[in-house]
Amino acid sequence: MSGSEDASTAPLVDIADLEVGFGETTVLDGVDAEIDRGTFVGLVGPNGAGKTTLLRTINGTLTPDSGVVAVDGQRIQGLSSKAASRLVATVPQNTAVAFEFDVRTVVEMGRNPHRSRFGGWSDPDGEAVERAFEWTETGEFADRSVSTLSGGERQRVLLARALAQESPLLLLDEPTASLDINHQVRTLELVRSLVSRGKTAVAAIHDLNLAAQYCDELLLLANGECAAFGPPESVLTENSLGDAFGANAVVSRHPITGSVYVTALPEGRRKTGRRTAGRVHVVGGGGTAARYLYVLDAAGYEVSTGALNEGDTDAEAARSLALDVVTVDPFAGVDDDTRESVERRVDAADCTLVADVEVGTGNLPNLRAATRADKVVLVEERPFAERNYVGNEAQRVYESLRSRATVVDPSDVPSAVARAVEDGVAEGESVTGSE
Amino acid sequence: MTLRTRTVAWSSGLCGLLAAVIVASAGMGSVSIPPTTVAKALLSADPLPFAFEVGRTHRIIVLDVRMPRVALAALVGFALASAGTVMQGFFRNPMADPSIVGVSSGAAVGAVATIVLPFAFPFGLELQGAAFLSAVITAFAVYLIATEDGRTPTATLLLAGVAVQTFLGAIISLLLLHSGQSIRRVVYWLMGHLGGTTWAEVRVIALVLPPLFLLLLAYARDLNVLLLGEEDAHALGIEVERTKRLLLAASSVVTAAAVAVTGVIGFVGLIVPHGMRLLVGPDHRILLPTSALAGASFLVATDTLARSGPAEIPVGIVTAALGAPFFLYLLRSREVTGL
After folding, report:
1. Which class is domain A13-249?
2. Fold adopted by B3-333
3. ipTM, interface predicted TM-score of the complex
4. Contact in structure between B215 and B223 (CB atoms under 8 Å)
5. Which of A280, A287, A297, B51 is the most exposed place for a label (fewest CB within 10 A)?
6. Which of B91, B215, B228, B240 best tests the A interface by mutation, with the highest count of A CBs <10 A?
């Protein structure tokens, strides 16, 4: 580091052209990355991409074949393990401990890098341990044996141990791997709060959606290289995921958290052109239909939907599934052309599915178009009156629709659609046969 | 209670126990001497400032006949228990004992060779010197075999130790076949014994043991961190390979010094650390000193039993006969899944 660079703005971790291998196998093949202070970086990538290897190289356990890892301007591989462990603290993936140390003893071990062999226990040591207890809320079981704790509690204890090291950089190897959903979220919330207290965290995270939700930046490792590095929305794209994971994934926004949301699709369902299950038109909007779009698409139906406002959650979902979607500009309402193209889709469909959608003047034509369908499946979660913003006119249309529709709960949609499509096809054949 | 107070309390208690066992042991034998007389005789011994009135006969029996053996038992018990504690922590394996890297087998080969082979060893090497030397060489050889690129995986070390022990066992069997008249001496040595001890032998161990034990004690905290696994230990600032080398060397020399004098005394280094771990927990800062002291008391007591029957039996038989059932009891009453 150049002396002119301000230490507080220079990146905390500087990884340059890193190559790491085991014998003949090269695991990391030229990784470059700079990690800024006070950020939470998620390390994502397929199994065997080298996430753990990268973490073990950053903390100095592994020696790279070439390239450099510098933390706070110091080459990790050139430091004693004591000096290195004052810069980098690691929370291991395997939290199982087969011995009966009490929690306090384990957390106090985090002070090892700061203690000399014959030096006693100092006040700063005690303060660091108490702070670690406080931040991780583990003080309550300080006197219990580690072996009596649950997986989530052990995870927090090991995090407390890492905090007692008082290092600027925190590495976590799959911190959520063996935890239930509640503890996964709690663990990542905790790491998030530590980052807001000034720590820099790098965590290998398997779950892309959790990673996107909690991390400032993601580093996508694939084939030993850094395939992408940046904010979650720029890293988790359908192309990058396809390349890295070989997966059929759809990227959208999570309706509640607003973070990038990845949905993996069954192999070979998309763009195969071999859809034989039938055609379904879906009337939705505002996110009421996104689930059905996905489920029906995955089940092999040819799915159309619309008309939907540009930017609507359901429109986004349909687009990411590459479905046939009719859109209009926001607040423009459905004009005649659009109405016709919706009606064409309803006519072509074996079955029309009406989601639990709120009806205003803008989308009333969708409902009207649905009345043309032979087979209607209606999802009713709330009474129509509660989601009718138009008045009697809409109520009438809905009643006529409902009188000949199959009314179902959300969970019954796939089976109801399957029955409706089957009936429709059968009737169509018998009609053809009688003529 | 803090760890420090617990350590002091337990150590003081065990020191008291050891003193009591020593006094009792030194009073037992063909001539029974009351404990007060033993204590007076001990306190009036050479370097100590007291001068109690003790009869000449009793004084000679206590100080010159019985005490060398009692002191040796205490030192060897101390050595084996502390080396066993370190090895169990080092290998993170409850079945590890002081001889796990082949120290005892190495000592046995050296000892048996000096007894059986018809020629004298160079440099005036006697039985105990040869046993010590071959023990240390064996441990070092096992270490070299298991080391690659400056790393010594404990699993490799363990397996190399087992293989080398088997190999040395074959050599010992071969030597036994050709031992002829001296077979009694060989078997007696192999069984572990404390008979015929002189102050000279005690002095050698008394010089070797304290500095090495203090060294091990200074690494008690590192040993704790090593229990978390080598990767974690490294992340917590331990120079793993260097620490392992040092612990292995120190405990091997401690074990070698003990078995070279007394032969193979089994189970002390396995049972005593286990028992103490149940009592004081896995923290080596308290476990190491208390195990060592308990080991000393244990061996003094078992050796007293060994020599108090109608005919003296090797102490190794007594430790194994008492130790194995106790170990099985531990195994059944408590799940020994780890340390």
Report:
1. alpha beta
2. ABC transporter involved in vitamin B12 uptake, BtuC (1.10.3470)
3. 0.82
4. no
5. B51
6. B228
